[in-house]
Amino acid sequence: MRALVTGCAGFIGSHLTESLLGDGVEVLGVDCFNDNYGRPQKLRNIDAARDWDGFEFVPIDLARGSLDDLVDECDVAFHLAAEPGVRPSWGQRFELYTRNNVLATQHLLEAAKR
User: Fold this and answer.
1) What confidence tier does 38 reach under pLDDT thresholds 50, 70, 90?
2) Angle made by CA atoms 46, 54, 80, in degrees to the nearest 5
3) Which candidate, 27, 69, 74, places its Cα nearest to that of 51?
4) Where are any strands of DSSP class E within the chain?
5) So where are the chain's domains?
6) Residue 70: is it exposed, middle or buried by C-beta count within 10 angstroms (0-12/13-18/19+)?
7) How many helices (H) and strands (E) does the chain have?
8) Which of 23, 33, 71, 102 has most Cβ atoms within 10 angstroms of its Cβ?
9) pTM for this structure?
């Protein structure tokens, strides 16, 4: 079995990735390294996963990138990629949240239904 984990470099996504790998599931992890916290921390989050033969990482922006091939390669998807936080989602950053949460999810769902 091969799983797609979006947001694999985030806190929850990295732990899910490690758990799946430990259970013998191959993982295709994707993340765009948005700036909600530093890139070095996100790289540390996926360090353990990189040691597994069954882990492949693809840096991609789900709102812009082509997802068809990624979805086709996987049996199941765990969609954890998002711009986190409720309070900052309103006001000046509303467009960013709409793009990274709503549009990215729509693109993933469209690719999955093909």
Assistant:
1) confident
2) 50
3) 27
4) 2-6, 26-31, 55-59, 76-79
5) 2-113
6) buried
7) 6, 4
8) 71
9) 0.92
Q: Are strands 76-79 and 2-6 parallel, antiparallel or unpaired?
A: parallel
Answer whether residue 35 shows pLDDT above 90: no
Distances (CA, A) of 11 to 1, 84, 90: 23, 11, 23
**Letter for the amino acid at 28?**
L
CATH code: domain 2-113 is 3.40.50.720
Rg (CA), the chain: 14
Q: What is the mean pLDDT of the chain?
A: 92
Which residues lie closer than 8 Å to 108 by C-beta, 6 or more apart? 6, 62, 67, 71, 77, 79
pLDDT at 87: 77
